[in-house]
Amino acid sequence: MTHPERVINFTIPVRMDDGTMKYFQGFRVQHSSVRGPYKGGIRYAPVVDEGEVKALAFWMTMKCAVADIPLGGAKGGIKVDPKKLSERELERLTRGFARAVYKFIGAWQDVPAPDINTNGKIMAWLLDEYETIMGYKSPATITGKPIPLGGSLGREAATGEGGAMVLEQLVKDMKMDPKKTTVAVQGFGNVGYWFARAAHARGFKIVAISDSKSGVRDNNGKGKEKGMDPAHVMLEKQEKGMISGCYCIGTVCDCEHYKKVTPDQVLMTDADVIVPAAVENVITAKNAKKIKAKIVLELANGPTTPEADVIFAKRGIPVIPDILANMGGVTVSYFEWVQNLQGVSWSEADVMARLNEKMLASYKVVRDIAHERKITHRTAAYLLALARIEAAMRAKGVIR
Prior knowledge:
Elements: E1 6-15, E2 21-32, E3 38-45, H1 50-67, E4 73-79, H2 87-101, E5 110-114, H3 120-134, H4 158-173, E6 182-186, H5 190-201, E7 205-210, E8 215-218, H6 230-240, E9 247-249, E10 252-254, E11 258-261, H7 263-267, E12 273-276, H8 285-288, E13 295-297, H9 306-315, E14 319-320, H10 322-325, H11 328-342, H12 348-373, H13 377-396
Parallel strand pairs: 3-4, 3-5, 6-7, 6-12, 12-13, 13-14
Antiparallel strand pairs: 1-2, 2-4, 7-8, 8-11, 9-10
Helix pairs in contact: 1-13, 2-3, 4-5, 4-11, 4-12, 11-12, 12-13
């Protein structure tokens, strides 16, 4: 498990709109296929390297094992700032990625999906180029596709919804009332928004939200917070391009009882639950001692450093690790893969019911291991994942 099974490193030439040629570095790391075809997203980001992609591929192997779905782990990426490319350039880049990896992906080999700065449109280009090269239709090769191309209903909201499902069960176990439980969300992209929306629908009180630049916090005081509807915050962000620091419902904004905060300050909010849903390593040894929350729910990949983990364990603060809390995305990607292979389409209600079953089953196993062995939820999640991977290896005779 220390080393991936395959690392693909390549350069993608792209003809830019001005006629010049630029070259972009790309990666696809296939970590483990012992439990099934490789599965993992593709990210477009200015900072992408082989080491990062290897780590993310390992995480995917662990996540699929915790979710108990018959898939292995992979990850891909291109070193690029997609905001600096036109839509035509982005399409050429994506089709170039497909040409670079088509021999190594497929419905029964490696199934890519969206990740940071990639979406359904990019997956559609990737699938179209792959099918053009191969000469046949293969919708199960790519997940996270638009619905007309075989995408699954519920996929966009899946990671956030899955996190809310786990949180609901956790607070029940801790004998907390969701309606009296305050939540702060750092990161208001696809994952953070859908989580906040799902938590709000379940009665949790959302008291702080931030995107990468700014945020807003309910300033009414502990126990007196009115909370926020994430849909209203998203409307304001879409209209103004940022979260201004006031809470607006239509044209009426409350700037007196709500305060502008930074993303770092959201983590320090006097809330019962903090949800890092943005980037890695935001909770460190420097700020872990100052965090007031009773629960940390990781929706980003790797938001908590090992040093911070030790501090939380000593303080008795449960951390629901990323490989459990955010596994909803890969779980519904698996559902999409299954639907494509079977040539069927499930209703959104059916998808969410199946997701809830998977999330709660995985959470309860991890919870019970943590309780019985007196270890953290993270250690328990890795023990569960490794036990399932070991069982597959022994069944195949890879180890004895």
